[in-house]
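Workshop exercise sheet. Pairs work together: one partner reads the sequence aloud, the other fills in the structure field after running the prediction. Swap roles for the next sheet.
Pair: D.N. / O.F.
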Amino acid sequence: MVYKQFRRLALCLTVLLHGLLVFSAQAALLQPDGATPSYALDTYTSYYHDASRALTLDEIRKDTSVFTPVKQPRDLNFGYTTSATWLRTELANTTPDTQQWMVVFAFPFLDHVTLHRVGKTASQSFESGSAMPVEARTLGRRQAAFPLTLAAQEQVTLYSRVETAGSKMLSYDLMSPEAFYARNDLATFWLATYFGVLIALGVYHLMLFIGLKEQVFLHYALFLFSFTLAILAFNGIGTLIFWNGIAHEAARLVAIGFVLASAMATRFAQSFLNTCVYCPRWHRLLARWRSVCWVVLVATLLLPIQPALRLMDATGFTTSLLLLLCATYGSLRRFPGARVFMLGWTMLLAGACVFALRNQGILPANFITLHGIQIGSALEMLLFALALASRFYRLKQQNEKAQADAMNTLKSQEAVLERQVAVRTAALERMAHHDMLTGVLNRNGLEKNARAALKHARKTRQPLALFMLDLDRFKPINDKHGHAAGDFVLKQIASRLQHLTRHGDHCARFGGDEFIMLLENMGEAPAALNEMRARISHAVRQPVKLPNGQQVSVGVSIGSSVYRVSNHDTASLEDLLKEADGSMYAAKPRSFNGQPDHV
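Structure field:
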């Protein structure tokens, strides 16, 4: 009898202990409120690795005890795995209001992410990932991001299934839509600036190579282009802009870009440090390693994606180590440019280390740690660009000492070329924004100046007036006196209109015999508009004396529109043109009948 009671007590204790273990294994429940714009979900999450990659949501929900709670953010950095990883997070809206949130994965290089929202009454599923075309994603963003609605007093469970051939860094956040879009816009701006700098530097040095025939500029440009390809694919920007049709190959593009960058980095180091002269042994070693890089590049095209990425990591690490050792050796031996090269390469490696430490959870997530590679590489590229410019200047000084007369001649030729380029650039700029016949703005010039004028109007809160002019009785002049006479009349009319403008006003030829006048600070009174309309009409209707001595005159139909700043205006040049066009055509019948040409 005592034995049976003891067994029952032991069984109860075992069940209780198991329950306590299961309860302790569950991640904490997050209760977001509307006052906090962002929550890190890492420590509210538990994870499970599905080695079979075949479990469904219903199967994974049957036994939640298999999930392991996340104790610190670094627990969600799983490196390279072949299994599918499930994340489980519980949320509860304890407020009386419906809440709108965004679930955002910080790492953009995740092939497929499926988010299941499981509630008491309904479930939803969303999909995204870097290997999916943009139009197939729940939100067309470079990161996996999903909308989430929490009804009042509702508790839901999020199950996220992640599969990726690359390294698995699964840190993710719960953000308000406003905070998400603000952060996304800021990140997009800086990434666009970053890529713009890289591409501009690459094109600039490629042009320097074409002009100067110095191999170091070509090697640097190729290094920049290959590195840019890799970072574009790695950050997801490339899929959004360039290769959406082959999004499933984005991971392979990362491997190709970084391996190609490794090969070109060794070639650039040889040229920049002039290793063939100062250290032939290092020159031969880098050449042999570059041959290995070419073999690895072929392998990345043939191997499955995950082995290709692992091979890319090993190649990149070895290349970085070799180049840093080479630069250190050159710095100790006082090779020209070796210290600058070592400093630049150290900046890139420091940025990569900051990014890696953030992914490990050692450093906090902020703009610098999230974009460590971009910041480090941007500083490195700019430093190398300055070093190349300095090196070019030193070479030029040496040539000046050796060949003073020849260099003076070259300088004069360069000055002439620079002036010609400046003149040609100014001419091209004018051609792009001005009408070749009349000299006033063309459509491009009008759009450019209209944007600035609208911005100024919003800032000063002063009205902006637009007048659209259509010349009447102009076609008979072409028919009777020829197109040369018609062109002469257009130039005279344009000149008169230009004389009516003030500083800050703009006049443009909008079509064959149509003109636009954009006038700032016109005031609110209709009398000011009518007075200006009358001045325009009077100036246009004045007779024009043709080169053959004959006099002709034209009429004009004038339409106008006024942009007045409001608190929620979205007016654009197109809106002003549309309003003025309707006004002009309403005035045209009266102008044909000899009535005043205004509305």
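Discussion prompt: The radius of gyration is 34 Å. What would you look at next?
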